[in-house]
Amino acid sequence: MTDGRHRRLPPAAWYPAHDPVATSRLVRLRSGLRARVVEAGPLDGAPVVLLHGWACSAYSFRHQLPALAEAGYRAAALDLKGHGLSDKPTAAAEYSPDAMVRFALDAIDAIGFGRVALVGHSLGGGIATHVALAEPGRVARLAVISAVGFGRIPFLPVVQRLPSLLVERPIQNLTPRWLWHLVLHGVTGRLRPYSPRDIDEYWAATQFPEFPIVLWRLVRQYGWTPLPREARARLPLPLLAIYGSLDRVVRRADAAPIEAAEAAAAVAGPAEVRIVAGAGHAAQEEAPDEINRLLLRFLEPWRDEWRAAQRARAGGRSAVGR
User: Fold this and answer.
1) What's the average model confidence in pLDDT over 169-179?
2) What is the pLDDT of residue 253?
3) Pairing of strands 6-7, 139-145
4) What structural domains and CATH numbers belong to the chain?
5) CA distances from 184 to 79, 126, 146, 149, 199 (A)
6) Vertex 195 angle, CA 192 and 199, to 5°
7) Relative to the CA of 149, which of 104, 115, 230, 244 has its CA 20 to 30 Å away?
8) How many CA atoms lie within 13 A of 1 on its CB side?
9) pLDDT tens across 255-277, in order?
10) DSSP state of 140
């Protein structure tokens, strides 16, 4: 499929094609759906699962996977249900908060992970938070970047009131590359513009006719409102909340530090808030070095805990063998 002089990337050319660090595969979930996972790092490394935002893919963590791998983690970035090369059912019920949480947990199981650290951006941050609330024993640490659930999306209520009958057919034609160029540059801050390759990677999913419908299903079905304070108070695990100071999607930029501090202060476990000056909605793409530094420092206790558990298991096996 083409758009003027541009041709959509075929799936074989999508990230991590030709990447020396990461590989991808499809895993079959207990539901029968398939999920694509992009993986990097040693097989015995502490597991970290990364969940991307609405209309994105594992590509949005292309700067984090090599850094995590080099630090000794086994990092796995999912294509969420309906996105990337994962399956794209169009039934509305598939995109409720509970259904998205179930998809994430089933994918973690299919990869072969037990307890993990979670990193989520935007919608993925909201899903990761709900996973931690639903299965706190499965999540060692939670890092979120401009996460849904910890802030408001000012324009969303207006969009949600649009009748589906007026949206579903036209939205299937809203896939020109220039539109994705506008959207991506509209959500970025001042630090790093999206490259033509970046736009091609995100635009590529529009070659699947189900993809625009999925995006609308999520707009209507997913719970985009901030988590109630009592829900956040049930998060007993360490939390790192990262925000771009110029994020125009999740909440007003001028209120970001206040809302971020309030959100983090409401959780039960230790919380840390970091504001990335000049970054927009996807700080992990605009300021990868700073985000990687924050993530590696935050995740280090999980890596130490994992390695200690590995040594203890190895010691136990040795004792049995004697």
Assistant:
1) 77
2) 41
3) unpaired
4) 13-321 (3.40.50.1820)
5) 18, 20, 15, 22, 8
6) 120
7) 115
8) 16
9) 555 555 566 656 667 889 999 99
10) E
